[in-house]
Structures are given as structure tokens and as C-alpha cells.
Amino acid sequence: MSLFPETDHLLPELAGRLEAVAACFERELVSDLSSVNLLARHVEKYRGKMLRPTLVIASGFAVRTGAPPSRVIDESLNTLGAVVEMIHMATLVHDDVLDEASMRRGGATVNSLRGNETAVMLGDFLISSSFRLCSTVGEPWLNTELGAMTSQLCSGEILQLSHRGDFNLDSETYFDIIRRKTGVLAGACCGLAARLAGADPIACKALRIYGEELGMAFQIQDDVLDLVGDETVVGKTLGIDLQKGKFTLPLVTHFSRCSADSRDQTIRAVERCDVAEVLRLVESTESLVAARETAEALVERAKDQLEILAECPARQLLRAIADATIEREY
Ligand code: FPP
Ligand code: MG
User: Fold this and answer.
1) Consecutive sets of 10 residues in the chain, 330 residues long: mean pLDDT of each?
2) Which among 97, 176, 183, 308 has most CB atoms closer than 10 A?
3) pTM of the entire predicted model
4) Which residues of 263-287 are buried (b: 16+ CB within 10 A; e: fewer)?
5) Domain ranges of the chain
6) Atom of ligand 1 nearest to the CA of 246
7) Minimum-distance ligand to the CA of 90?
8) What CATH number is given for 5-218+302-327 in this structure?
9) Atom of ligand 1 at shortest distance to CA of 150?
10) Which ligand ends up closest to the CA of 227?
11) Which residues fall within 8 angstroms of residue 162, CB to CB, at 6 or more apart?
């Protein structure tokens, strides 16, 4: 269950902790209704690498070097891991409705199997379950912070929707969208885990920024893969961003660099959803390379935030996760 097997040696406890997170996740979603249980089992297949719980556990460990072990903190971190994974699942189920996507993690999406109504309600079930579970930690500030985070997340999606089909979308707005829709959740995983583990505000802030920048790099890579990825490797429906008029960094950069003729040609290719032609044009202004470089720069900035922490296996793992975020092809 570990994120990347090659990093297993960095935090030997991680696999066991992720098992505990998965068990907590499964327990929380048990219902008295078999129809709900069936859907919950389906969503468990989306869990994949458990990046977000891994960020929670690694951040908690990274700020506790030298401190005596605490069962209360360990259990709180496990619960937070399950909470953030549940929030993440809720966003994916709702996102697939918005995107009309048919495939996720190599399997059918809930909306394609059971329709939009069921998918919307399942997302709501997951989000409300996550907040019930979160309240069992007994730290009211945690619910407040997570509520603020999910509001930001939704505002990112609303901002993205308000710019659908906008060929004048600028990079500043694009970065605002991806910070809200992806960055803040990863930032919360790290910053809130650090606070739960008793870190000082400076370390909590550094870890939150680490997570936010890593999350943004992750989203840029996701956006690049939506254009250049192979569906059988990525395991989800690709090419959706163009179809849905969600213009992402490669295209935004291209429009800021290309000639008026190339702009018209690109708009026509986007309107035909001709991914190959859009790619050819975007590559002509080296905008795909530029997007990758931006993701690399975000990863470097994320890793710089870790400098204030004492060197330890968890810090090494956080560095390795940052690098892997943009190396992935899936
Ligand atoms: C992935 O976008 C989507 C997100 C990171 C956020 C989606 C959030 C919502 C739909 C709001 C719902 C919020 C709650 C709290 C239930 P993408 O389409 O670029 O990624 P993909 O390629 O994985 O589909
Ligand atoms: Mg999507």
C-alpha cells in the first residue's frame, strides 16, 4: 500500500499506518443500507496510492523527531488520514459528474455506472461522513480548518467553471484555480497534521506551504497528462479539459506566446477537440516544456520549505514524494 515502494525504507512504519487509515476509512463508511455499502466499496477502489494520508503521516512524523511516542497523537493522525482521503474521494466523485468522465483508476466512474444523481449523493455522503469522523478527534479547530479548506476547494471549482471556454484565461487566474482546487487540500494534510502532532506555528506554516506547492505541481502534471497521457497508463478518461473548455497551463502559456494566426488556428483546433493538433501548436511555442518547468520549480520551492525541519526519514520521504509528483506518468 505504500506510495512508492522504492521509498519504503525511509519510513518503515508507513505501510502499517496506511493500513490503519484504510481500516478507519472503511469502518466509517459502513451503513445499515446495502445500496450505500455497495457504493462505498466501489469508491474504495479509487484509493490508489493514498498520497494524502501519506502526507499526513509523514508530516506528523517529520515534526516529532525526538519526542516521546504518543498513542493519542498517532490515532489522531490516522483519523485525519482517513478524513482527508474521504474528502478527496468526495471531490473525485463530484468532479467526474462535472467532467462527465467514464473512467477513474482503470474502472468505471460512479456517474457512468449509476448516474449523476447517485454520484452527487455519494459525494455528499462521503463529505458528511468525513466531518463526522473528524469531530471524533475532539479538536474543534480541526473541523474549522477543514471546513474552510473544503470551501476554498469548492470556490476553486466555481472559479474554474466561471472561466469555462475563456480563451483569455490568464496564468494568474489559472494558478489561483489550481491552488484552491488541489493545493489547499494537500496543504491542509501537511499543515494540520503538523499542528495535531504539536509542532510550532512556523513549522505548521512551512508544511502547509510545502503541501500547497506540491499540490499545485501535482495538478500541473495532471493537466499535462490530460493532453499527452495514455489512458491505459493514466487509468482515467483523458482529453476532458479541452472538451469541457477547462484551459490549463500549456494552453494558457501558448496563447501568451503565439502569433495572432496561430491563436486563431489553436482556437479552431480546441473547438474541434483535436488534441493532436492542439498539442502540435502548443509544442511549437514550447509551452508544454514551460508547464513542466513550472511544475519542477514548484517542487523545488516545496522542498525548500522542509529546510527548517530537522533531517529525519520522514523529511526524506516528503522530499521523495515531491520529486515523484512530477515524475509520474499516471
Ligand atoms: C480534479 O480536477 C478535481 C479537483 C481537484 C477538485 C474537485 C472538487 C469538486 C468537484 C468540488 C466538490 C467538493 C466537495 C467538498 C465534495 P481534474 O478534473 O483536473 O482532475 P482529474 O483529471 O483527476 O479528473
Ligand atoms: Mg476531472
Assistant:
1) 67 91 96 96 87 97 87 94 98 96 92 97 98 97 98 98 97 98 98 97 98 98 91 84 94 97 97 93 96 97 97 95 84
2) 183
3) 0.95
4) eebbeebbeeebbeebeebbebbeb
5) 5-218+302-327
6) 19
7) 1
8) 1.10.600.10
9) 15
10) 1
11) none
